[in-house]
Amino acid sequence: MSNFICPVCGKPLIIKEKILSCTNKHNFDKAKSGYTNLLMSQQIKAKHHGDDKLMVRSRQAFLNRGYYNPLLSKICDMIKKYVSDGSRILDAGCGECWYTANIYEYLVNNKIKPIISAIDISKDALTAGAKRNKDIELAVASVFKLPVKTNSCDILLSLFAPYCNEEAARVLKKDGVLLRVFPLEKHLLSLKTVVYDQPYENEIEIHTLDGFLLLEKAEIRNKIRLSCNEDIINLFTMTPYYYKTCADDQKKLQALSSLDAETEFGILIYRKL
Prior knowledge:
- This protein is an alpha/beta fold.
- The protein folds into two domains: 1-30, no CATH class; 43-272, Vaccinia Virus protein VP39 (Rossmann fold, 3-Layer(aba) Sandwich).
- It is 25% helix and 27% strand.
- It has helices at 53-63, 69-80, 98-109, 123-129, 165-171, 189-195, 229-237, 247-250; strands at residues 14-15, 19-21, 27-29, 35-37, 88-92, 115-120, 137-140, 153-159, 172-183, 212-226, 259-272.
- Strands 4-7-6-5-8-9-11-10 form an eight-stranded mixed sheet, with helices on both faces. It has a three-stranded antiparallel sheet with strand order 1-2-3, with no helix packed on it.
- The chain is globular, with a radius of gyration of 19 Å.
- The chain starts with 13 loop residues before the first strand and ends with a strand.
């Protein structure tokens, strides 16, 4: 049985050799790379959804260098107390699954075997993500219409991803746990200072969520030294800044051989009421 439901009728999906199928005979082909496309065409009109290949490759290369390991370690430490064998975890907006796969590996190494599934709107991201861990079931889908049964998840992860409170409340069980990660005000401010004439700080979202009780919060503030231009460019092109910046401003990073950059993250853990 799949962890996902049919996006057409809401019935459970059964895993067959190369497809997922429901009792109403709605079939969804499984891509060779390992994910299933459950995104209905009318949900998103754009031809290309989410992160493209450049962004995915850049994020893979940058994260694999360990720059965000302190954040990953903190997430693992905080989430461990809420997870037990068989806990159902959904990563809503998983990208190329660096966090998803590493969290799963951390829990398994600590003798906890959860059931993890993940969705993202980007096929390119899931093509990369499917190579990280075959035990994580992946689907192309939107966080605004999760192909997941109501009241079925013990934990929902939302890490630097678009967030839909209504869907989070729907799929989580009563007393289920929501973990969110987001950039703080000065995250990557030094990078933006190089690129923009008037760099700006990030806006921080209000922590109160309808239907949820805030249990824990943490902040991770570090300074990383990017010691080669490749890492600087990867950091820039893995963020939305790259696609919102003109060519002349993008070129400002090409001459840099090193850069000290702030990494500042907020982590919030909620319980569904």
